[in-house]
Amino acid sequence: MTKHLKGIAASDGIAVAKAYRLIEPDLSFETKKVTDIDAEVARLQAALEKSQSEIEAIRDVALENLGPKEAQVFEAHLMVLGDPELVGQVKATIESNASNAESALKEVTDMFIGLFESMTDNPYMQERAADIRDVTKRVLANLLGVQIPSPATIREEVIVVAKDLTPSDTAQLNRQYVKGFITDIGGRTSHSAIMARSLEIPAIVGTGTVTADVQQGDLLIIDGLDGNVFVNPDEETVAEFETKAKNFADQKAEWEKLKNEKTITKDGKHFELAANIGTPKDLKGVHANGAEAVGLYRTEFLYMDSAEFPTEDEQFDAYKAVLEGMDGRPVVVRTMDIGGDKELPYLELPKEMNPFLGYRAIRISLDREDMFKTQLRALLRASVYGTLRIMFPMIATLQEFRAAKAVLENVKSELLSEGVAVADNIEVGIMIEIPAAAVLAHQFAKEVDFFSIGTNDLIQYTMAADRMNEQVSYLYQPYNPSILTLIKHVIDSAHANGKWAGMCGEMGGDQMAVPLLVGLGLDEFSMSASSILKTRSLMKKLDTADMKVLADKAVNECTTVDEVIALVEEAVSQL
Predict the structure, then answer these.
(1) 504 is catalytic
(2) CB-based contact 566:541 (threshold 8 Å)
(3) Do 433 and 286 belong together in one domain?
């Protein structure tokens, strides 16, 4: 019997495939005494050998998709598996204590982990502790006969089912095989949803129960247009959604015709439609969808996809690839935005009650100036290969912007004194995501070259509502008059000082928001590449004078988000 689940439509598209549960298994076990020592040692050996073959497979995929540096971590795991001292002690513990393999493994590896973690003055040995922990988990899973999921090794068409997906999980997803994903938690602006739109695969988040309702291998239909999931559907339902998928493909083909056109409104005004990207690989989608610029390059994925801090040359290569790949079209690069839900295993961040309000983004960069300078050196070296715009995230005060700008100027002077060429037309701006900066935009606009409004955080901070929390998701209101008023102030402040204002939050590609943003005078709209063509299609129908009247009504006359939505729906229905 077909089971129907409802969630939040986070990324457009329809897919039919088997479920792949990306869920950590239960690794609890009982400590037991064994009578057949030889059999227990043989069981351990079999688990070690299976673990080795699994890690070798993951290493090979990492080598192919990510490169030799990222594959090194799995070489370290193989060294742990082959360490005669560690493995020998586990076998000796089984033999001397008549322990089952699980308890012997944990006893010995806990001792090694504790030993290495205590070496606080030796980062290399502390990293080995993490390697041992990872390897132990895999061997334990094989002893218990349960599977540790590995998205990097998926080799058949699947729909991933998970409680949530971390940025590192989504970075491993191979679009050739992963046709979509569904999660228990999250919203349209969670990182998993944003990555799904970058990968151009359908996604439904916030279902609440999908991990409980779906088993490995169940046939799934995922409707990313309406937020519907069907588990083990009958033939009639499959046929219905195959037709819907074809209709959506036909619609996309119509939008495709606009790929090489400029974004011009009905009355002839041009707006810049840009793409948000996470890696140089995303340029394929940027070009396929006719983006006129890159409005947000999330450089933190360089850090998150690496086992250690990326070097200056590694960063330079990535930035150069994007700038060259855009053939002179602008590229807005956001400096490292680590923190909140984006962690680095090799950067020890303090445990905080409110990490989204804590030590993150520009706050880390200004505190860890060595790390910040490495990134800025790489960016400035790459600047001669295209049109670079640098953006600082999480700016709350003018002092922070001035401090970041000063570091940038110092790095530029150092490079020039070394004889390194640096472009002389680099615009430097800030991401407006903290209400304090939005309110003071008229002062910031005197010193920055541009604003890019990061609505994902601006909305949650303004409404005091965690965008990842389903209990308060009703307060995540992009069209609330208070949000629109802040956005209007930012845009007006930019224009009053001869500067431009863009938007790189997900609201920039929201079809309900676009008419309002056109009316408010937003200059640049940056969004997931998959949203560009349908936004260009919508903009061709809009008259800027009419949209200005619409936006003024929304800001000055509407008192609730429902009133704004009704206003926009009425206006769009008449296009």
Answers:
(1) yes
(2) no
(3) yes
Tell whether pTM > 0.85. no
Concatenating the DSSP letter of every residue in 130-180 gives HHHHHHHHHHHHHHHT-----GGG--S-EEEEES---HHHHHH--TTTEEE
> Which residues does 317 contact at the CB level (< 8 Å), separation at least 6?
none
Q: What is the CATH number of the domain that holds 243?
A: 3.50.30.10
Catalytic residue among 4, 270, 489, 504: 504
Q: Say whether 191 is catalytic.
A: yes
In a domain? residue 28: no
Domain assignment present for residue 242? The answer is yes
Q: What is the pLDDT along the chain (575 residues), one digit of tens a residue?
A: 789 999 988 888 999 999 999 888 889 999 999 899 999 999 999 999 999 998 888 888 777 765 676 677 788 889 999 999 999 999 999 999 888 999 999 999 999 988 888 887 776 777 788 789 889 999 999 999 988 887 777 889 999 999 988 765 776 677 789 999 999 988 777 777 877 887 788 999 989 899 999 999 999 999 998 899 999 999 999 999 999 999 998 998 999 999 999 999 999 999 999 999 988 989 999 999 999 999 999 998 888 877 788 999 999 999 999 999 999 999 999 999 987 767 777 777 778 888 889 999 999 999 999 999 999 999 999 999 999 999 999 999 999 999 999 999 999 999 999 999 999 999 999 999 999 999 999 999 999 999 999 999 999 999 998 877 778 878 989 999 999 999 999 999 999 999 999 999 889 999 999 999 999 999 999 998 989 999 999 999 999 999 999 999 999 999 999 999 999 999 999 88
137 shares its domain with 264: no
Residue located via tokens 């992963």 = 178
Q: Which of 191, 287, 489, 495 is catalytic?
A: 191
Domain, as residue range, for 115: 37-144
Same domain, 157 and 300: no
